[in-house]
Specification:
The protein is mainly α. It contains ten helices and no strands.
Length: 184
């Protein structure tokens, strides 16, 4: 079933929408959650939380890209679950390392100006990713959106581990230069 048909089911508040969403996006959502939490049961719970959150938000939200909306929701839910479980932990684990690797590219400010600036940053990132080659974009997003390990990415794309690491390093450098040039 295509995304427009699924959204139409959501608009009618037809519970079949949840089943269709699970069929189409469930496996990827589970994998996103598993990559963050490293626990199959927790990943399944995140899928349920994601489906519920999408059910509660669509409508009134009408996403242009349903898959992106669902994946973003799953990632957010998994990160929140991770934070709840690991409040006392300080660094050293894969998710923290993955997020911290980007901290030198995107500064973190928790003030009102930073919150208002998020849309601008999102548009800059859209432009940056549009300028990247497809391979670089996929590898970078696997690492930092899906929280995949380098060796998982190498296996997924049938390439060498050193190529993946170098691609991520070069893309991070490009991102830092791009954001700096744009005043970020």
């Amino acid at each position: 079933m295509d995304d427009n048909a699924i959204i139409a089911l959501f608009n009618k508040r037809d519970e079949q929408a949840i089943e269709q969403l699970k069929l189409k996006y469930g496996a990827a959502c589970r994998q996103i959650a598993y990559n963050i939490l490293k626990n199959r049961e927790d990943a399944e719970e995140i899928l349920s939380d994601t489906l519920l959150k999408v059910w509660n938000n669509v409508p009134p939200d009408l996403p242009d890209n349903l898959g992106g909306y669902v994946y973003k929701t799953a990632r957010y839910e998994a990160l929140e679950a991770y934070r709840r479980k690991n409040r006392k932990m300080r660094g050293g684990d894969a998710v923290t390392v993955s997020v911290n690797e980007l901290s030198d590219c995107v500064p973190s400010n928790n003030d009102v100006e930073a919150v208002m600036d998020q849309k601008y940053l999102a548009s800059l990132l859209d432009r940056f990713f549009a300028e990247l080659g497809e391979d670089q974009r996929r590898i970078f997003l696997c690492r930092y959106f899906y929280n995949m390990e380098y060796k998982e990415i190498a296996k997924k794309y049938g390439t060498g581990l050193s190529r993946v690491k170098m691609s991520v390093l070069r893309t991070k450098k490009k991102l830092k230069e791009f954001l700096s040039k744009e005043g970020y």
